Amino acid sequence: MTRYCDKITRLFMRSFLPLAVLVVATLSVVYSLDSRGRLDLIKLTEHQNIDQKKEILNHEVQHAVNNLKMLARNQFLHRFIEGDTASGRQVVTDFFNVLLVNGQYNQIRFLDVTGQERVRVDRQQSLIMVISDEYLQNKADRYYFQETIGLPDGGVYLSRLDLNIEQGVIERPFKPTLRISAPIVDSNGINSGVVVINYSGDHILGQLADSDANESAQTLLLDHQSYYLLGLNKADEWGFMFADKQDVNFKNQFPLAWQQFNSADSGQFIADEGLFTFQRFCPVVCASSGADDIPAPAGAAVLSNYWFAASFIAAPVIHPWILASYISGGLILLVVLAVYSWNNAKANCQRMLAEQQLKEQATRDPLTGLANRHLFYERASQVLAQSQRMQRGFAVLFIDLDKFKQVNDELGHEAGDALLLELSRRMRRILRKPDTVARFGGDEFVLLIPEMKNLESVYTVAKKVISSVSKPFTLNSDGAKVEASVGASIGISTYPENGEDIDTLITAADAAMYQAKSRGTGNFRRA
């Protein structure tokens, strides 16, 4: 059984291993090509995604700038500045209407040359309110007023996108705000104030987040110092607004990626963390006809206020399901191949075993398992041909059991069969591997000894056979164990002295056996 299982295992491995190697190699190549193609598609999609985000930023900022310039040139605002109180009511109405149709604006203000708010219209959730004079504030110390009041006619200032501050305190819940402001210049070219639109940062950030084409991609918006305006985690955003979060930024989290961001206006690269795609966006360039239109001294300060619109796809999620599907598909295929290979190996082994059994049935004695007459002649012919070629001798021993008929008659045929089976085991133990012993029928056996050294060596074999046969046999008879003894008479013929063909040698050995038997049991005689 062990040899049978070993043979199945060898056949299985011989069939399965080449198929498994072929499957793994093929899947590896296909996966490599497929993942490369999918990665290229992801990269293209993210490039398009970032282009779209930049267009969104351009559109939103440009629309606000157009409204701002319109308000800065409002004739009622200019009359109000010159002292026409009645025009002030129309200014409020115009501010109110602009705020009404632009839900992304949180506030519109007019500040005079001292930084004092003169007109202010706020959006509080769904309500639009005109702020009364007693609640108006002075913003002379705020950076956006200081940057804008010195700009020439047509100039526009875009602030940093930050959190709104009221009465010196960050407003809660957080209200991200982009302040877009322009100077009000009278007919004499003198700046007489500033118009400021507070643009909702939530609107911009929401537009960016909603435009994601890939669910696995995370949208980022970074300022020029790498602080998160739209981050991987809400808790990491607006770090520059808080004293205890000054080190919470993209530069510290992804230092190598930040170097790439700063080295070009746009790009895409794969880092250890994942796939980054980015574009630099300068709001001031969008707000003017070009960088050359930005006047000094404010122009240099404004140009440093740029953003990075970026997307990030973490390394484990670039194409994990693809790898998982290939692995699972490959495992299923390998299991199918293993089952097929095992069944095929089992079938082949059973076929080989059946063929071997048929061959043994045709060449072996069914009782003792010794060679039969057909196999003996086949091997003897080979030995004869080899002996003729090598010019050397071989011997044939004809063995006949003595007293075997008595055992059959007294103890029964089953006991006789058991004796023959045990006799075959004894003879196998005393013979060499090249020797062949065959049962010719009944109690007659023929022994072929190739490569005969000399007659003495043949006689030695004959003596061993006689000695082995003469030892008592323990047999079962009617449920009881009994001992039986038999003997052996052996006739010996040798090639070429006693014949030059197998039949002649067997006949000579048979005749010599009868001569030995006539001298009593346990004898051998040479022809």
SSE layout:
Layout lengths: L1 H71 L2 H7 L3 H17 L3 E8 L4 E8 L2 E4 L12 H6 L8 E2 L3 E2 L1 E2 L2 E2 L5 E10 L5 E10 H10 L7 E6 L4 E3 L19 H4 L1 H8 L3 E5 L3 E8 L1 H5 L10 H6 L3 E8 L5 H44 L9 H18 L3 E9 L1 H8 L1 H18 L5 E6 L2 E6 L5 H16 L2 E5 L2 E5 L2 E9 L6 H17 L5 E3 L1
Parallel strand pairs: 20-21
Antiparallel strand pairs: 1-2, 1-9, 2-3, 4-8, 5-8, 6-7, 8-9, 10-11, 10-14, 12-13, 13-14, 15-17, 15-20, 16-17, 18-19
Give descriptors for this structure.
527 residues, alpha+beta, Beta-Lactamase, Alpha-Beta Plaits, 7-stranded antiparallel beta sheet, 5-stranded antiparallel beta sheet, 21 strands, rod-shaped, membrane, transmembrane, Rev_trsase/Diguanyl_cyclase, Sensor-like_sf, transmembrane helix
Notes on the structure:
The protein has 527 residues and is an alpha+beta fold. The chain has three domains: 131 residues, Beta-Lactamase, CATH 3.30.450.20; 104 residues, PAS domain (Beta-Lactamase, 2-Layer Sandwich); 163 residues, Alpha-Beta Plaits. It is 48% helix and 23% strand. Strands 1, 2, 3, 4, 5, 8 and 9 form a seven-stranded antiparallel β-sheet that branches. It has a five-stranded antiparallel β-sheet with strand order 11-10-14-13-12, sandwiched between helices. Strands 16-17-15-20-21 form a five-stranded mixed β-sheet, with helices on both faces. Strand 16 and strand 17 form a beta hairpin. This is Diguanylate cyclase (GGDEF)-like protein. Its cofactor is Mg(2+).
